[in-house]
């Protein structure tokens, strides 16, 4: 049971004891068992295998953030002595390090250069680990394809869509499309892309997306929506986006969130029926 979905008193000072909380939980559970689905939200715990498959994407994200920290630290150390334009991510980074000079034309200080070399060693180690994780991710996709012989695997189906790569396909398959949804509202709510309208009397406005779902999946779907507009310029979703912007109905960010919500629904429908094409004019294979 999701504790945040249980209605409580909005008084500034309300009584709160273990007994009151227990009674509230029991009454809520009884109402849910009677067939009132909106009285609370039930948490669906993923299986051990589903949770273990998510670790690949999470580890890769942590390694990417660690690589950014190493790159920024190297650039910061060099900037402190007046050196700009050095890119630690290039393959010839060590050769270029030997050629660097300070802002006043002197060679790099010995201890600073040693620290930079150690930072480059850590950066190289992170790059190797990222490649190892990506190899493990591709192997997982190949194993899934070998199991489902009569139809393409989930990752293979998603990667066939123009604009979706291996990382997006793995995140969608392991973090969003591995479970069953009953309607469009559940799909949007799981990704945190459900709208939050404020309509009371003469007030009628949108507060944006709820942001109550999977934050990693929501971020990826927003990125995918903008990539979709670039790579799927002839799709119906892209035409709708440009027509709405031309009519000046809402801002670009709100329209982008709606496009991400629609893409989530499209990908879910595509994966439910992998043998047939879905949404002519919306999906374009590579």
Task: Describe the 3D structure.
The chain is mainly alpha-helical. The protein has helices at 18-33, 48-79, 93-99, 110-147, 154-159, 166-175, 184-190, 215-231, 236-246, 252-272, and strands at residues 195-200, 203-209.
What multimeric state do the chains show? single chain
What fraction, in percent, of the residue positions are helical? 55-70%
Provide the spatial order of strands within the biggest beta sheet.
1-2
Mean pLDDT: 83
State the helix count: 10
Strand content: under 5%
Task: Explain the layout of strands and helices.
Layout: H1 18-33, H2 48-79, H3 93-99, H4 110-147, H5 154-159, H6 166-175, H7 184-190, E1 195-200, E2 203-209, H8 215-231, H9 236-246, H10 252-272
Antiparallel strand pairs: 1-2
Helix pairs in contact: 2-4, 2-6, 6-8, 8-10, 9-10
Features:
single chain, 286 residues, mainly alpha, two-stranded antiparallel ribbon, 2 strands, disordered C terminus
Quick description:
By secondary structure, this protein is mainly alpha-helical.
